[in-house]
Design a protein that fits this description.
two-stranded parallel sheet; 6 helices; 107 residues; 7% strand; mainly alpha
Length: 107
């Protein structure tokens, strides 16, 4: 959207200034060429300078496939994985464990 309205560079600069960037639900859908290029630019700029947290339901072994374009995926993942601390959680989803609180107060 930022490219369409001309604010892409301004938005990238704003993202680059953040000490921590969180990419939540990474890999929900495959990247198109434009998204892949934007991710590469963001990752390249942050590499070794700022913190990055990525959450994903997708195993890391599938990230290459979802990013697409082998050469760019290699470059992105090399920068992400090189100095990463990985936490892989197991078990049932916390959303499934929580039972909805149904109010039964009928007056």
């Amino acid at each position: 959207m930022a490219k369409a309205d001309g604010s892409y560079l301004k938005e990238l600069t704003r993202i680059e200034r953040q000490q921590l960037l969180i990419l939540d639900d990474f890999g929900i859908q495959p990247f198109d060429a434009q998204s892949r290029a934007a991710l590469m630019e963001i990752i390249e700029d942050r590499h070794g300078k700022s913190a990055l947290i990525i959450t994903s339901q997708l195993p890391v072994s599938k990230w290459h496939e979802v990013i697409g374009e082998k050469t760019i995926a290699d470059a992105i993942l090399d920068r992400i994985v090189h100095d990463a601390h990985r936490l892989e959680l197991t078990g049932e989803s916390m959303r499934r464990k929580r039972k909805p609180q149904v109010e039964t107060n009928y007056q």
